[in-house]
Structure formats: C-alpha cells, structure tokens
Amino acid sequence: MAQKDLELRHLDTLDRDLGRFSTLELTTALVGRPLVAPGVALVFLLAAGLTAALIFGQANNAMIVIAAAIFGAYMALNIGANDVANNMGPAVGANALTMGGAIAIAAICETAGALIAGGDVVGTISRGIVAPEAIGAPSVFIWAMMAALLSSALWVNLATWIGAPVSTTHSVVGGVMGAGIAAAGFSAVSWPTMGAIAASWVVSPLLGGIVAAGFLWFIKARIIYRDDKIAAARVWVPVLVGIMAGSFSAYLALKGLSRVVSLNMGQALMIGAGVGLAVWLVMIPVIARQSRGLENRNKSLKVLFGIPLVVSAALLSFAHGANDVANAVGPLAAIVQASQTGSTTGAISIPLWVMLIGAFGLSFGLFLFGPKLIRMVGSQITKLNPMRAFCVALSAALTVILASWLGLPVSSTHIAVGAIFGVGFFREWDAERRLRLSGEAVPERPRLGEGERRRRKLVRRSHVMTIAAAWVITVPAAALLSAGVFLVMVRLGG
C-alpha cells in the first residue's frame, strides 16, 4: 500500500512537471510567434549586407555600400508591408482570392515588375530630384543619399507602426529633397521635376478615381442593368479582360523587350492590340462555360468576374513592382555608382544585385507584415464585390503603368485609394440618380441626424481627411528627418 502511494505521488509530481513544461512550451510559442517575422526580416537585412560585402570586398567605400544595402533592404521591407496591401486588398476584400493566394501572386508579380520594368523610375529617384553636380564632392552626395534612404525607411516604419496611411514614394522623395537641401541648399533641388512629381500626386488619385468610376459605370450600364445579365456578361467580360491584357502586353513590350530589341510606341501598341485580341477570343468560351446554369441575378456575376479580378490584381502588382522598387533602391543605386566611379555626373546603371534587393524586399515585406493591411484596405473604406474590385484594380494598374512609363514616381497608395473612393462615390451618385429616375421620393436628408447621414453613405468620410492629412505631412516630415540625419552623418563621418 505504501509502495502504491509512493508511486502515485511520483506520478502526480511527473504530471505537474509535464504540465509546467507544456505551459512553458505554449508560452514560448506565444512569445516567439510575434518575433518570427522580425527575425526573418533581420536575416534578410544581413543577407543584403553580406551580398554587398562579397561584391565590394576590400574597396575603399565597402562599409558605406554595405550600410546602404542594408538600408535599402529595410526600405523595401517597409514598402512591401505598406504599399503592396493596396494591390491585393480589393481582391481579398471581394473574396476572389484567399490570403495565401494573394500573397503568392503578389510576390511573383512584384518581383517580375521590379526586375523587368523598374529602371526608369530608379533613374528619376536617384538623379532627377537632386542634381548630383550641384552637391559637389562624391562623398557628400553619398552621405546625402544615405540620409535619404535611412530617413525615408524610418518614417515609413514609424507611420506603419502608428497606423498612418502614408505614401512610401512621398517619403523617399521628401528624403532625397531634404538631404539635398541640407547638403547644398535649395538650388540643388530640381524644382521643375519636383513640380511635375507633386502635380502627379494630385492628378493620379483623381485619374484613378475617374477611370475606376468609368469602368464601374460601363459594367453597370452594359451588364448589371440589362434584362439578361448573363448574356450581357458573356459579351462584355471577355472584352474587359482583353483590354486589360492588351494594356499590360503593350507596356511589357515597350519596357521588357526594349532590352532585347528596340521598339517604338506604335510597335508596342500593335503587340498589345494583338495580345488583347487573342485574350478576348480565348475568354469568350471560358466565360460561356462559366456562365452555364447561372441564375439571372447580380450575385451570379461575381463568379464571372473572378478570373478578371485575379488577373487585374496580378497586373497591378507587376506595375507596383516596376514603380515602387525605385523607393528602395534608387538612392542605393546612386551610392553604388558614386562609390565605384568616384563621379556623380555619369549615367546611372542599375546593378542586378541592387534590383534583387529591392524586388525580394517587397515580397518579404508583404509576406511577413502584409496580411493585416490587406484586410484593412479590402473592407475599411467601402464595401467591395468582384465587379467593383475589378474596376479598382484595373484602374490603378493602368494609372501606375502609365506613370512608370513616363518615369514619374507616383504613389500607388494615392492611385489605389483614389480608385476605391471613385468607385464608392460613383455608387452613391448612381444610387440617388436611379432613385430619382424611378419616381420614388428621395428621403429628406435634413430630417436625419448628422451621424445617421454619415452612416448611410457608402464611403467612410473619416478616411478622406485622415488620408489627406497623412499625404500632406509626409513630404515635409521626411525632408526634415533626412536633413537632420544627413547633418549627423557628416559630423560623425568627418
């Protein structure tokens, strides 16, 4: 009996110890889970620095280039965490893509866009904002680009942490401008270029909203408001997909194939027209097969817009990679060029390893830190379904592609948010217009309380002022931070 009591006590002690170990393991897992993403990000930063160290070896400016590579990788991670959500948010919010599928597609297309078509905007960031010859010594120019890179990365990281919807493009342009002013005064800044960039920040969200509203009007007029919605969709959905494929192909021919064979705008448009026509013909039987057995109602149309929405989201990710990779590696490319040649006036060439840092940084940032923001963008501003999300994604993609072709570093955040607002405001206008045309009395708005009137709107008005305020403050904040970082770096460097 005593032996059995002793064995039971040992078993109780063992159970308690095992329970403590289980609790410890669970606690460690809970504590360690939030540290996985920062840990992977740190490994990526170290890999970027190691790559620069292997390439530059014992060169005089090796440490500067290594630090710049780490800063560029850090900026790329922040861009992936912040901006890429604008690309996949509409598709996820409309339930056309799962979170895993969205991340996989975005990672592939962001990397392809950065590597194939990212060169022009990199040149604008690294040389177009601040004239290198106005700064003087290459060492001063290198410090200015280092300050711009670090300050813009810090600002985006801070803004993301506090939940402010800022533009990474605003941040890096402000950083370059602030460092240039601190290094050589206001004359170092190319104010005509800054004026064009600033104008694009105003025009791009308006253009994105107008184009998105135009596509939504077309879909409503030609498909949704028709008596036989499915028959109308069989006609027009292939056309919309063909337009999207043709635009993408023309841009890819002009940018990607130009490295192999010289193509002018007319030839690129001919290629785009051919591909668009082929895709239109291919999509006709695809949509016809998908539409079999569908009921003649709006809910059935969501099935037919699934493929176009996924393709348009992929197109937008490609365009974002082409445009916003400049924010991460533009200053880095300038630092590498100045370090290798000792001159700041020669043509900037973009090394492959520099573009790889930017491309993979975007993908890592999206994968590690993007899902929460993707959900927010997809549902917080206005309610999206596949048709509305298609309009947003296609509008944003076309606008970003045009901007990248022109070499203007516009903000994909501005364009995507502008497109979402455009869709929402068009829905409000169209709902009231149809109510009037139906002959029914429009509800008396003065009788509603202000809170109830805001609640009934299809677009959350609070986001308008929040986003506008964030857009306004980012450039001066990044410029001031960059100027301060530059002065500190120069003093420490010596």
Automatic annotation (TrEMBL):
GO biological process, alphabetically ordered: phosphate ion transmembrane transport
Pfam families, sorted: PHO4 (PF01384)
UniProt KW Cytoplasm keyword: no
GO molecular function: phosphate transmembrane transporter activity
Membrane topology type: Multi-pass membrane protein
GO cellular component: membrane
Primary localization class, coarse: membrane
Transmembrane domains' residue ranges: 35-56, 63-81, 140-160, 172-191, 197-219, 231-254, 266-288, 300-319, 350-369, 389-406, 412-429, 464-490
Superkingdom of origin: Bacteria
Listed name of the protein: Phosphate transporter
Native organism: Paracoccus tibetensis
